[in-house]
């Protein structure tokens, strides 16, 4: 069981190297195709306004300690009072994102495009690997693993006597799929990685609800503890100056 | 390694004031240098022919050297550029491992197996 298998050099020249190169090239192709297909969404005035209000409220919260308590309170009132505060959402006016998505075909179209640009190349490559390279050992990982990993690494080979560290070509494809992510983030810039995470978010959240984030921001402002920092800065400046004089 | 931009932080103040964009940029630089070095380390380990535990030890050593290098780049005062030391030491550690294993296997197979 422990004796070494001799692998044909033709496997290296015609399977291992081409497979890896193709994976890299397909990743790059996918990036550019999805970049071409990405349509810039037409901003809706209301959405943009709400987003800007949220950003302003966040800035207020971040810089709260640098303004006097009175100023902070008046600004907070401006944002979160119950009558006409910017962050106050009247009950029953929040739009349902699900309904909004179905009424707006562009949104669904956009999501479908994104998913397709992800799924199609992967399916195609997997089918290609399966068709041409199935059923033999293509590589060997340089560290021992337990039997548990057999199904992961020797996908497509039904021999229980081969050492687990030998990798079938189909599993080499999966290794490439996960391991090349780092390389892509280097050669394609971070846009690639961000795109992926955004896609995940979209899948999970199915669009975001502006009124919900508005009220969340309002709650955050309401419970924010104001602690004016500037009086202590005078003491600090004094100590710094004294140190300089010494 | 890219240049780390200076986060606008008041050194002696007890109130943390960060420029979020600069912080994010610094973290991105760390991430990129770690990924890059893990790929390089993988190829190196494969060509030299490390197997088993030695390879992983090699990865840890390289990551340690990276940490030291990043700290030297930050002038050994990480709180100027990051919100905590852990960022310099551990960010991108596991993400690089996958790339390392892939390139280690690839180079090892090309050089030693066939």
Name the descriptors.
A: 246 residues, two-stranded antiparallel ribbon, 10 helices, 3% strand, elongated, B: mainly alpha, 68% helix, EMC3/TMCO1 (chain A), transmembrane helix (chain A)
Average pLDDT for all residues of chain B: 80
Largest interface: A-B, 31 and 35 residues
Portion of residues in beta strands of chain A equals under 5%
Give the neighbour order of strands across the main sheet of chain A: 1-2
| Biggest beta-sheet profile of chain B | none
| N-to-C span of chain A | 77 Å
Q: How many individual β-strands of chain A?
A: 2
Shape of chain A: elongated
N-to-C span of chain B: 34 Å
Structural class of chain B: mainly alpha
Average pLDDT for all residues of chain A: 78
Identify low-pLDDT runs of chain B: 1-13
Family (chain A): Belongs to the EMC3 family.
GO cellular component, one term (chain A): EMC complex
Pfam family, one (chain A): EMC3_TMCO1
Membrane topology (chain A): Multi-pass membrane protein
Structure description:
The complex is a heterodimer of chains A (246) and B (114). Chain A is an all-alpha fold. Chain A has one domain (9-245). Chain A has helices spanning 9-37, 45-62, 69-80, 97-103, 105-133, 150-153, 169-187, 191-205, 210-222, 230-245; strands spanning 137-140, 166-168. In chain B, helix 1 (20-48) runs antiparallel to helix 2 (53-73) and helix 1 packs parallel to helix 4 (93-113). Chain B has one domain (34-113). The longest helix of chain B has 29 residues, at 20-48. Chain B contains four helices and no strands. Chain B has 114 residues and is mainly alpha-helical. In chain B, 68% of the residues lie in helices and 0% in strands.
């Amino acid at each position: 069981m422990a004796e070494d298998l001799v692998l044909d050099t033709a496997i290296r020249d015609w399977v291992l190297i081409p497979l890896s190169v193709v994976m890299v090239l397909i990743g790059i192709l996918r990036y550019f195709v999805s970049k071409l297909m990405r349509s810039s969404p037409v901003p809706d005035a209301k959405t943009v306004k709400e987003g800007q209000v949220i950003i302003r409220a966040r800035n207020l919260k971040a810089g709260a300690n640098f303004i006097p308590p009175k100023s902070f309170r008046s600004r907070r009132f401006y944002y979160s009072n119950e009558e006409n505060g910017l962050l106050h959402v009247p009950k029953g006016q929040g739009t349902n994102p699900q309904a909004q998505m179905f009424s707006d075909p562009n949104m669904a179209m956009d999501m479908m495009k994104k998913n397709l640009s992800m799924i199609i190349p992967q399916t195609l490559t997997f089918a290609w690997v399966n068709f041409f390279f199935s059923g033999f050992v293509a590589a060997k990982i340089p560290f021992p693993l337990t039997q548990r990993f057999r199904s992961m690494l020797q996908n497509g080979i039904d021999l229980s006597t081969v050492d687990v560290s030998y990798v079938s070509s189909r599993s080499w494809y999966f290794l490439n799929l996960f391991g090349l992510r780092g390389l892509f983030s280097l050669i394609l810039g971070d846009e690639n990685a961000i795109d992926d995470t955004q896609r995940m978010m979209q899948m999970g959240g199915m669009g975001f609800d502006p009124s919900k984030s508005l009220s969340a921001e309002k709650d955050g402002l309401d419970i924010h503890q104001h602690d004016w920092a500037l009086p202590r800065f005078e003491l600090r400046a004094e100590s710094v100056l004294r140190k300089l004089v010494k | 390694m890219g240049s780390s931009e200076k986060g606008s932080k008041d050194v002696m103040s007890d109130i943390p004031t960060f420029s979020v964009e600069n912080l994010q940029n610094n973290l991105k630089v760390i991430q990129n240098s770690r990924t890059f070095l893990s790929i390089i380390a993988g190829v190196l380990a494969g060509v030299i022919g490390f197997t088993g535990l030695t390879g992983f030890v090699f990865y840890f050593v390289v990551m340690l050297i990276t940490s030291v290098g990043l700290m030297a780049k930050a002038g050994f005062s990480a709180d100027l550029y990051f919100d905590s030391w852990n960022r310099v030491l551990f960010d991108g550690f596991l993400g690089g491992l996958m790339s390392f294993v892939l390139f280690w296997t690839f180079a090892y197979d090309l050089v030693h197996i066939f």
